[in-house]
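Today's session is about reading a structure prediction critically. Students often jump straight to the picture, but the first step is always the sequence itself: look for stretches that repeat, for charged clusters, for runs of hydrophobic residues. Only then move on to the predicted structure, which in these notes is written as discrete structure tokens rather than atom positions. Here is the chain we will use throughout the hour.
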Amino acid sequence: MRFFDQNKILFARLGLLFFLITVVLLLVIFIEFLVGNGDGVWFDYDLRVLGFKLISWMSGALALYLLARYSPPLVQNLLLSLVSVVFLIYAAETVVGWIHSASQKPAVTTTPQYAGPAYDSSYAFDEFLGRKPIPNHVFKWVKTLNGKPAISIDFTVDSLSRRVTPAVDSATRTQYGLFLGCSFTYGDAVRDNETIPYFFQKQNADFQTYNYGFFGYSPRHALARFQHQDIAKQVTQKQGFAVYTFIDDHINRAIPSVGWIGMYDGFFPDIDEKTMQTTGVYRLNHPLKYRAGMMLFKSKIRQHYGMDFPFVYRPQDYELTANLLKATQEAYQKQFGNNRFYVALYPDQLKKDSPMPKLLQERGIKVLDYRKLFPFPSKQYQCTYDGHPNPEAHRLFAAQLAKDLQILQTPK
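Below is the predicted structure for this chain, in token form.
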């Protein structure tokens, strides 16, 4: 009580200030209700959120003031150190932000500058995958050049959120091919008849392929598919194989790294690392981790210096990625009753000393090492309007896969 007696004038003034702010905001909201649409938003400012933030900041500032004035010396020193660190971080963020903004000014160039596509219109929410292709949908993959549409490609998706592989005739195809992975598998920037699954099916008359890839997918998504869907009931054939197309960036997505939390906005499968069970969506299961990750992702320092967290892959990151793929293999075997599950290492300059091939082989996973199949990234095997593999890269990959599977599946 003595504390409040000593500060009664301060609290009285603060209460009066809060009251005046509340009255002013209510008055503005009332005016907006009369002359606007009554949603509490005026000139793109949510008045209720604005008032809450203002009062919260004032309350926080008062709390810091009282702690600094009346706390023991140890608490005061800790508080001073904390405030100093926060101020230095804020100052560094501000300065680097100015430098970063200045460096982002478009340079004068004669090279065509493409923009797009609008990926947000390609996916829907899924309670286990986070995001999935919109079922029974044709996504218009459009890139613009100098603000005008320049390239338009249709991505056709079936009722089970799989990209359609054209010219399917299941009556004459006795085996299935399940293709798992990210945009390399899905076929970003190429047409339905230019993807890896399409070229494989075209070259192998006995196989009908199913494209389970999607933009930004990872081993987490492949595992979640098998754990929460009965894939065996989604295919017509009883015999076949599954292949996961692996690129180095899938380790970032398996961790997940700060960069990937931000890129996918936390909408990817959460995983219990002890049981290897996917359990809902990361963003919803770990709101504090998600918010911390987004704060780091949006950091101007991180953006300017191209950093990610963790800075380098740790042994446990490789182990987790390998464990996810092993769990996917086991889930596949449980549904389909065969061991024809493969991991194909894409020619994406995976580090020569990467432990991934060895870790996968130690877990009994069949590895197809295509790292030297063709140079990638390179102009010869990339789309001219996008950094993803072009149709020729997909054709070569599918041809080598068909050749290797024929050898591996031939009885000895």
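Discussion point for the tutorial: The two ends are 89 Å apart (CA to CA).
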